[in-house]
Design a protein that fits this description.
three-stranded antiparallel sheet, four-stranded antiparallel sheet, 109 residues, Immunoglobulin-like
Amino acid sequence: MSTKIMASYNNFTIEASHAKSTIFRLRQNYPNPFSKSGRQGTAITKIRFDLSRTVDVVLKVYNVLGQEISTLAQGKYQPGRHEIGFEATNLLADVYPYVLRIGERVLTK
């Protein structure tokens, strides 16, 4: 069985040659960049990912030094699009990569 791998800036797709493809997508957070707004001065961005089947998921945010900042999601997720809010009011303005782990697969934005 051969495997076809396609990658682009906005998504990562894995398709196997068997009858049912397995597709996982990690989408760009929105808004990006995000800043403090509103009366409470909260900074919230939304991270979305798509699943084609039920899988165990771990979604974490890191700083540029590779230190874990937050675990946003952990557990079994059903097929479909999922949206997780990341509240970063107490963080400095910086780049915060987020990592979606699905089994042995790792997707990063």
